[in-house]
Specification:
The complex is a heterodimer of chains A (390) and B (369). Chain A is an alpha/beta fold and 390 residues long. Chain A has helices spanning 6-19, 28-43, 64-73, 91-104, 152-160, 165-178, 278-285, 291-297, 311-316, 320-324; strands spanning 49-50, 79-84, 107-108, 117-121, 134-138, 188-191, 195-198, 216-221, 226-230, 236-238, 265-267, 273-275, 346-347, 355-356. The model of chain B has no long low-confidence stretch (mean pLDDT 89). Classes of the chains: A alpha/beta (390), B alpha+beta (369). At the A-B interface, α1, α2, α4, α5 and α6 of A face α1, α5, β3, α10 and α11 of B.
Chain lengths: 390, 369
């Protein structure tokens, strides 16, 4: 034994263990911290609230954030439902459910109508939710701006100043290059008219169901140590352009099991489709589902259709292919493009005093760029190449 | 009564657990006791303690056995265990000069003040594989008092050295850049998520808990890769030894030593060469981690000075804070094994939508993603 005093420490710990309630997954201090973060998140819809994410018995990336939020808000009187990809019987859903029920004494259910807390990986249940529900979404990447800005310090600034221009430009470029916005799941939304938020990777099909919803949605990102929320009756608007409708996923078929054409369908082999929400699918088959109410909620008006896509894009604007078919003689060389990279690191705190470093990046002194000055306040940026030269 | 979902998943999970338990706990071999593991797999235990951020050898050893030797999985078990425990006290900061060294080398000086103490190392042992028929040497060599890792005494004898640091020698020659001390309490990375820009203590704490391989990989990239964040580092100190753990007594308020722990400490001296740096002096990076893990401590010290110089002008600070934790990176990587058919279906749908428009041809230029 290395610790000469270990027995005493062990005795001390044993004494505490003896008086403690049955082993939980989180100590009470951590739960309190999570509740505080969740309350802050509710007060500032869409804002990512940092919290001291604890290590869970499940790996980070496997729902550790959702699990912490669930354990923070749930009590013995609650009923928990856990789904993974919409499926109650998925192994990860099953594992999380038994952890939650086993450590809190709450009731388990696969029926959304009985559940009070629903932890989900990447689906909103097809059953319309009410104000009795807390929906806890597991979040792998909470930062909606990460695709357009790699520096987390810069992302924080962009959120603080509501500077979402890069996001809009990326959506525009996407549209110009591809004819549609190709963002698949985790579609960025504007919450409460203020913060751009990542909708976890729920499919676009589920995004409209967060808008002005009667239920509370809590998003837990354990690895990234952030909690954010969409409180009931909050605006959740997908980022899109006035003349470009937001599109949900369409499928060329109906559910092979229950025949639904108004649910989110996934491939089920041999070109057929099935509901990803197994609970809803089974209840439709058992005639135990309010299909009319569900159909009202389903985002059928947002299904993709070339007819609804902006005619302007198809006809009025020059799109990428026609730009390439210009009157100029085709050259073997690629079209010119501006690309500035590898400008090199700078010494000092940044800002006007930043000085380029010697070394392999910047090359010989003759090739080195003159001292660059950056606008004040950008010294936290990790990407010198994204910074304009003065 | 409402819908009750299929429960096939649970049986599969329980069956998988049985397979693991049976094969591990009933393998046709003698049981590896906790003492066996702490005594014979010291470096693995130390690695688990460091990456878990919890110093208790028997706990780390139990986790190592349960994880079948996967140190990262063992660190996960220990950290998840830690999440269930209340925080009883916060220890008093310890001066690393109090370290009772078991090993100490100063590569930057031939005859530094204090000993060059090789200690327990295989650095100069030929890497010859000892096969099954190898037997322990018959004779156990008598050990000098104070070099035995398990022999911890409360009061260091005068013979136990607290050698003066090499950096102190440099400072006496006015060869070190002096930094103002920040009086701020250290950043607790277990309670607040560190985000750049973060104080140095947050970067150091993140590295102290980081996965060893991640730090080594980042170090190698920094010295030989495209970033060039490490210029010409010389090690001023590499130490392994005992440090005291003290907490304030709840009644008297006096610091009381309640135990000791082993740590590895490194000081890395960087040759400053930047345009706005004091090129007539050196600067020192610092590394300290639980247990005996020189690789980690050396990488940490190198990356500390690299981060001080280039952390904010390049991606290094963000890399150190957010990408070196083993539980984070391994968990996220392994989550790819989870079903992803909902997200994938959505991606397929967009591919088809794109194809339907007939526009999907890349114009010149590059996407910033």
């Amino acid at each position: 034994m290395t610790l000469a005093t270990t027995p005493r420490v062990d005795d001390l710990l044993a004494g505490i263990d003896a008086t403690a309630p049955p082993a939980g997954i989180l100590d009470e201090g951590a739960k309190r911290e999570i509740r505080r973060a969740a309350l802050t998140a509710v007060c500032v819809p869409g804002y990512q609230v940092p919290f001291g994410s604890r290590e869970m018995p499940v790996a980070r990336g496997w729902g550790s954030g959702g699990l912490q939020v669930t354990l923070g808000v749930i009590g013995a009187g609650d009923t928990v439902k856990v789904i993974d990809q919409g499926d109650d019987a998925g192994v990860n859903a099953t594992n999380l459910r038994r952890l939650i029920a086993g450590s809190t004494g709450c009731t388990e259910s696969a029926d959304s109508r009985e559940a009070t807390v629903i932890q989900t990986r990447h689906r909103v249940p097809e059953q319309p939710l009410t104000d009795q529900h807390v929906l806890v979404l597991q979040v792998p990447v909470p930062e909606p701006l990460r695709g357009v800005q790699r520096s987390v310090a810069e992302c924080a600034r962009m959120h603080a100043e509501a500077d979402y221009s890069t996001m809009w430009v990326s959506l525009y470029e996407d549209l110009v290059r591809n004819g549609v916005i190709t963002k698949s799941t985790g579609y960025p939304v504007l919450v409460g008219g203020r913060y751009v938020m990542a909708t976890t990777p729920i499919p676009r099909w589920d995004v409209p169901r967060l808008h002005q919803a009667p239920h509370l949605s809590l998003f837990g990102a354990g690895r990234e140590k952030q909690i954010y929320a969409v409180p009931p009756h909050t605006d959740v608007e997908p980022l899109t352009f006035d003349d470009v409708p937001f599109e949900v996923e369409g499928a060329d078929g109906v559910c092979v099991r229950c025949g639904s054409d108004d649910t989110f369908l996934v491939e089920s082999g041999r070109g057929r489709f099935a509901c990803s929400d197994t609970e809803w699918c089974a209840r439709v088959q058992d005639a135990d589902a309010d299909r009319a109410r569900h159909r009202e909620m389903a985002p059928l008006h947002l299904l993709p259709g070339a007819a609804r896509r902006p005619g302007a894009l198809q006809q009025g604007h020059l799109h990428a292919t026609s730009l390439q078919q210009s009157h100029l003689a085709a050259t073997a060389r690629p079209e010119w493009a501006l690309l500035v990279e590898g400008v090199g690191k700078v010494h000092g705190p940044g800002g006007a005093s930043a000085v380029p470093a010697p070394g392999p990046i910047t090359g010989p002194p003759s090739a080195r760029p003159p001292a660059r000055s950056s606008p004040p306040g950008t010294s936290g940026s990790t990407s010198p190449r994204a910074r304009p030269s003065a | 009564m409402g819908y009750s979902g299929a429960r096939g998943g649970l049986e599969a999970i329980l069956a998988a657990e049985r397979l693991v338990r049976d094969a591990r706990d009933h393998a046709p071999a003698p049981w590896a006791s906790t003492e066996q593991i702490t005594a014979r797999f010291r470096l693995a235990v130390d690695r688990v303690q460091g990456e878990a951020g919890l110093y208790h050898e028997p706990t780390a050893a139990d986790a190592f056995r349960q994880a079948e030797g996967d140190t990262l999985e063992a660190a996960h078990l220990v950290r998840a265990h830690r999440s269930t425990l209340p925080r009883l006290a916060v220890s008093v900061p310890v001066d690393p000069d109090e370290m009772v060294v078991l090993r100490r080398i100063v590569p930057a000086h031939r005859t530094p003040e204090g000993p060059q103490l090789l200690g327990r190392t295989t650095d100069y042992t030929g890497r010859m594989l000892e096969r099954e028929d190898h037997h322990p040497t018959d004779e156990r060599h008598p050990r000098r008092l104070g070099t035995d890792e398990s022999a911890v005494r409360h009061e260091p004898s005068p013979r136990q050295p607290h050698p003066t640091r090499f950096s102190a020698f440099l400072r006496s020659l006015d060869l070190l850049v002096e930094h103002p001390r920040s009086g701020a309490p250290p950043f607790d990375v277990t309670r607040r998520p560190p985000r750049p820009p973060a104080p140095r203590s947050a970067v150091l704490a993140s590295m102290a808990r980081a996965e060893t391989g991640a730090l080594v990989g980042l170090w190698y990239r920094s010295i030989l890769g495209p970033d060039g964040d490490i210029h010409e580092v010389t090690l001023g100190e590499v130490r392994h030894g005992h440090l005291p753990l003290r907490v304030r007594h709840p009644h008297t308020g006096e610091p009381v030593e309640i135990g000791r722990f082993r740590a590895t400490e490194t000081e890395a001296i960087e040759d400053l060469d930047g345009a706005d740096e004091d090129r007539t002096r050196f600067d020192v990076g610092y590394g300290l981690c639980f247990g005996h893990n020189e690789r980690k401590s050396i990488a940490m010290a190198n990356l500390d000075i690299a981060c001080r110089r280039f952390g904010r002008t390049g991606p290094l600070e963000q890399l150190l804070l957010l990408t070196t934790d083993g539980l984070d990176s391994a968990g996220f990587l392994e989550h790819l094994k989870l079903p992803h058919y909902v997200t994938f279906r959505s991606m397929v749908e967009r591919k088809q939508a794109m194809r339907a428009t007939g526009v999907a041809t890349d114009p010149p230029g590059r996407d910033c993603r």
